[in-house]
Design goal:
This protein has 410 residues and is mainly alpha-helical. α1 runs parallel beside α13, α8 crosses α9 and α13 crosses α14. It is elongated and about 120 Å long. The chain starts with a helix and ends with a helix.
């Protein structure tokens, strides 16, 4: 778990890396690191405080870091900054003297390749995008005009709903026109005298009411509507889809997970390794807010909770019944299911709400459709081989017991 000193010491690292008065030659490829692997490490360890651009988050942006310090110095510094300071390194000593008593946290568990991968990711992110070539044969360059956007699903649904309503209204109007046309038509009674309008209207409505076919249609429509509403109400019992309670502290996932791209694992520390994702404690918040936005009224609530040793009473949004077993690690780590699959676009939510129904039918439908993530997982090798002998379809969760009652109920 990070502490307040970790954030402060990371600032020291970045001052060292971005000092403009001392630069050392470094190869552009950052020692041949893997940028893809570095991206994952960066999002977990660095992204909470730093950007790969010049933008300042908590500490300075990391653009150009490999041109300011050489790889050998960076490897030593990240693994054990205190040792670099103790060795008498002039640059490290100057940094410590300037920012003491804050000390950079050591990362001895990171290998040389891990650090090089992070540096490669930073360099790759800072590299300019290739310029679009000139259009040939009268074709328009890809960047000349943005692709046209198709109507959203919601917009299409609204159009269909409006069309259905218009058809229903049209049908009702046709019925009314038919009845009124008969009522106001040139109907005459006995002796050639015209029948009064109200009498003709009453006669037409009476004839319609006495029509057994029409009465049956109306009756069955009524029964159908009442039955549907009853079952819809029963199926909605215990379903909290759309639930978005007010929290004791106004925390914005849109700001943290969206704009600053804070990895879910940073706050929900057990999401990849435990049954539950866990609610972050106040000291995790203080890793960042011990230094930034301290004057914010919402941040002051965190300070008060810590000073009074009072837990923050977060309101749970997603809550499965006790009769259902769900393991986060099994889905996010082994199954490689993205958080958005169940929680919706969490990175766009100011206030978190339950987007999915989380019903048994919803889970079963997912198990029927989702393919098992078997790549690079030797545990499934024999199972995949057996499955391919009897089926040409991909191996899905339903094929490995995902529909058995005991999987979720125990």
């Amino acid at each position: 778990m990070y502490s307040r000193s970790v954030i402060s010491t990371l600032v020291i690292v970045l001052i060292a890396l971005f000092s403009s008065y001392q630069s050392v030659a470094q190869d552009a490829a950052a020692g041949g690191g893997d940028a893809a692997k570095g991206k994952e490490l960066f999002s977990t360890l660095c992204q909470q405080c730093h950007a790969v651009t010049d933008e300042k988050v908590i500490g300075p942006g990391l653009k150009g870091i490999t041109k300011r310090r050489d790889t050998a110095w960076l490897l030593k510094w990240v693994k054990n900054p205190q040792a670099v300071i103790s060795s008498g390194d002039a640059y490290a000593t100057a940094l410590y003297a300037k920012f003491q008593p804050l000390v950079m946290q050591s990362f001895p568990d990171l290998s040389d390749d891990d650090i090089k991968n992070i540096l490669a990711h930073i360099d790759a992110s800072a590299a300019p995008a290739p310029a679009a070539g000139p259009a040939t044969g009268g074709a328009v360059a890809a960047t000349a005009t943005p692709a046209s956007e198709s109507p959203s699903g919601l917009f299409t649904a609204v159009l269909v709903a409006l069309l259905v309503v218009m058809l229903l209204v049209l049908g009702v109007l046709l019925v009314l026109v038919t009845i009124l046309s008969k009522a106001v038509g040139p109907t005459t009674g006995e002796g050639g005298q015209a029948t009064p309008f109200l009498q003709r209207l009453k006669t037409s409505l009476g004839a319609a009411a006495s029509n057994s076919t029409l009465r049956s249609i109306v009756l069955w429509l009524f029964v159908f509507v009442v039955t549907k509403q009853t079952f819809d109400g029963l199926y909605s019992v215990g379903v909290s889809q759309g639930y978005a309670p007010k929290q004791p502290i106004a925390f914005s996932h849109k700001l943290h997970a969206g704009q600053y791209q804070v990895n879910c694992n940073y706050c929900h520390t057990s999401v990849y390794k435990g049954k539950i994702a866990t609610i972050p404690s106040a000291n995790i918040c203080m890793n960042c807010h011990g230094e930034i936005k301290r004057e914010s009224p919402e941040i002051q609530k965190i300070y008060k909770a810590i000073e009074t040793d009072t837990p923050i009473e977060w309101v749970r949004v997603h809550n499965l019944p006790d009769l259902a077993y769900f393991n986060h690690a099994q889905h996010t780590n082994v199954g490689q299911v993205q958080c958005q699959t169940c929680h919706g676009e969490i990175e766009k939510m100011e206030v978190v709400e339950q987007r999915s129904s989380l019903t048994m039918g919803w889970c079963i439908d997912c198990h029927r459709k989702t393919e098992v993530a078997t790549k690079d997982n030797a545990y499934y090798d024999k199972l995949v081989a057996l499955h391919k002998k009897g089926s040409k379809e991909p191996l899905r969760v339903a094929n490995i017991g995902g529909l058995e009652c005991s999987k979720c109920h125990y």
